[in-house]
Amino acid sequence: MSKFWSDLVQQLNPYIPGEQPKIDGLIKLNTNENPYPPSAKVYEAISRANNIKLALYPDPDATELKESIANYYKVKIDQIFVGNGSDEVLAHIFLALLKKESPLLLPDISYSFYSVYCSLYQINYKIIPLDNKFRINPIDYKVNNGAIIFPNPNAPTGILLSLNTIEEILTNNLSSVVVVDEAYIDFGGKTSICLINKYPNLLVVQTFSKSRSLAGLRVGFAIGNKQLISALEIVKNSFNSYPMNRLSMPAAIAAIKDEKYFQQTNTAIIKTRAELTKFLTNNDFSVISSMANFVFAKHKSIKAKTIANKLREQKIIVRYFDKPRINKYLRISIGTEKQNSLLCNSLKKILAE
After folding, report:
1. What are phi and psi of 203, to 5 degrees?
2. pLDDT tens-digit profile of 68-98?
3. Residue 341 and residue 14: Cα distance in Å, rounded?
4. pLDDT (tens digit, 9 = 90+) per residue, 199-244?
5. Superfamily assignment of 7-37+259-352 in CATH?
6. How far is CA 343 from the centre of its chain?
7. pTM for this predicted structure
8. Distance, CA of 297 to chain centre
């Protein structure tokens, strides 16, 4: 702490991302990255863009990228906002739409960046506990609020809410913005984008980091009513008019156009998720049904932290959260079939000790 820091900075507890260790031969199953590379067409697009135009500023409106997203999701271009990863998109959403006199509602087990943004922007918020099965009860959100946000599927549980449940939350809160964070929706869920024209208070956030393997390029977007999008554009242009660079935009366009590769890799991840779930269930783990690219599991007798430490000794890292309600669980990202096989073999050795 420094005397030169502002009062706000001295009060912040920043988000701690999953570690990115530099260890040879590491099997990294802790940050929900896609185990498969981007489409070959992504590399081709980056190669074409890597020329003298890098000396020029990119399109501040990211028009071509928005057009590609609009065509894919069958929405209008003025219903789309893009940013430097979904974290930046969410940051602008918190400032533009969620800072109200009444509290922002969010689940107690959720993406931990939400409370960090609340502290950063000094937003009043209220934690709504999930039920004893880690599920959202829509009735719990039928209370006074300024806005609502939750991931779907949830992180770190992987639990998916149905569209009917989301509609119940929306209809109970027609005067509040409801943000649905769909970072993992492509691994088994149905997007709520289909509801944006019916509910002007709905804003859906997605990312190219997970299902399209572009975590390293930072591309995120939001889709919703054009009035909501306009507010985000105002904040963006008051912060950074050029969040999307000349390499990330064509890469994202290429990724969204290669539907065959997108479906191929997602199918592989879903298949491996089912195989890992079966293995864990057969070896005394309790596994929450996941629609994300990870599973959330606890062993009936061995502590989660112990298993995580022993896996690390074998150069496999998974995510352990030392937090109330979830400190008995491990979040394990879905890897390739080979990585999954190595993980299962390592777990067999640990369980046999």
Report:
1. -130, 125
2. 999 999 999 999 999 999 999 999 999 999 9
3. 35
4. 999 999 999 999 999 999 999 999 999 999 999 999 999 999 999 9
5. Aspartate Aminotransferase, domain 1 (3.90.1150.10)
6. 24
7. 0.95
8. 19
